[in-house]
User: Fold Cytochrome P450 from Mycena maculata.
Amino acid sequence: MSSSLETQAFEMLQSFDSHSLAAVGSGLFMVLFLHRFPQRGDSSVAAVLLAVVAGAVYGKYVLELSLLSSALTSLSFFAYHALTVVTVTVLYRLSPIHPLYKFPGPLINRITSLKLAHMVWTGKRHIVIPALHEKYGVHVRTGPNTLSINSYSAIAPIYASSTAYPKSNAYTPGRMHGDGLFFIQGIDEHNARRRLWAPAFMPNVVAGWKVLVEKRVWDLLACIQRRGEGVPYGTINLSDAIQHWSYDVMGDITYGGAASLDLMNTGDPEGYVSGGQVTTVVFEVLGEVPSLFDLIWYLPVTRVVRRMEKFAQDLIDARQHGLVGRNDDIASFLLGEHEDKKPEPLSRDTLRVESLFGIQAGSDTTSGVLTFAFYHLLTNPDQYGRLRDELDAAFPDYHDTDDTALSLDALNALPYLSACVDECLRLGTPFPGLPRVVPDSGAMLAEKFVPGGTIVAVNPWAQMTSPENFSPQPHAFRPERWLPGGLGPGTVTRRGAIMSFSYGSFSCLGRALAIQEMRYVLSHLILKYDWKVSPEWDRKKFEDGITNMRTSIFEYPLLAVATPRK
Ligand code: HEM
Assistant:
């Protein structure tokens, strides 16, 4: 008995040696293979698991080892294999033969994308990336194959030119079924889908949505009054109220009322706003590690995404098969209801993805900037007073009539209002990563050659607060910088460095709508009420609680008190 055990152990050792060599060899082969033919994360793990099982079966039935030793031999083979893959990958990423070797960056970022994902997860990417640029210079290696380039000159070639770069795999949403405008990476395919969306944003269509926006702004005014009644100091959670407004108005614009969203009244008991934010965060964080996203997709943590998918499916179903809708809502274009613009019908999966994006693209973004707008105005009384004076002078009869519709032309003609909107966009955009892929031939970016296939990004916050683009006081809320004369002689205000809506083929289609909405909400709320921050509000907690992961999350709300002006 004991001699047979010894023999078996000896055989195992012998086979282990040859197997470990084979494992290292196969590991090396795998590194080369994956380098040439990148695979999805879930497919790779499934292949490894299958190979482990096949190895164990081979050991048991061909080599005639016991079940235990064949399983152990197979597992040890793949442990060596995995160790080789990881070691060689790390060494390669740090070695002079890596195409990005000459670009500086923190050691851990050069080794793994997990560090970048973690940075996004903290919600402080917009602060960390500029700090890295301060330390390392214009080009920083923020991931094994990722460069952040802090240069105004890089914005046009990467995003805005006719040869702008395609989106990176950060836009691959795990294993979600169906595709959507926002997630399509290639320029040609994306342009084709954009042609379906774009007519919905023609000026005449957007102008037609004025009645919807106006009606919801009146609802917001009433909501503010209601929420301030019977509570200490009349404090309202302004960030929440604005978020609820933004969902309601986007429900109208996207589904022509078929969505019957009424969060300003219901208070969002289903948690759609937080569900939407978590979904955005999942996409933004895991987008930095797409292979991991493929795996995590199957875990309960992405349940919220599926809940939001169902929400989106219900909305588009209600619009498609219900009786409600408008002939100019966004859904009417996606569903091909316009005779002159009949596209190939979209699949149910694709409609769901478009529907999910359609409502979120315009809600959280706009409400985030508006919350920042009120934060800046309420903490800068001089600027707030100047805006209120301008509005009072433009609409002297605002309180005397029941019809408080504000004319678009009149709003557009107000210089200080426009300056405030520009300044709020500069300091309040939910700063995304905007990663793009350099074409195979490589490119000169900010005076350095960047190899083809590199993922590059210009960080919006770094550009929008850079003294080279905005000076003096680049971090201060100073709408005056946008007016003739600026902040005095030597003022620098570089509009082209505003990346709020991005540029080029992938840029925001809702820009005009968003600006129109901001003008409406700011004007109505300031004309109707005198605003102060609530005595219960803690400014430091608010500022510390701001996290940016493509969506702006206010962990601690903006608490304000609104007193009717007449
Ligand atoms: C202040 C509010 C808004 C901001 C800051 C904003 C910002 C952006 C940005 C930065 C992108 C490009 C994202 C990327 O490439 O990763 C984008 C795309 C987009 N936005 Fe907005 N957005 C806002 C409001 C809206 C509104 C109200 C709508 C209306 C539905 C909208 C619709 C879209 C669409 C359809 C795209 C995708 C465009 C494409 O891929 O071709 N956005 N937005």
In short: The chain has a mean pLDDT of 91.
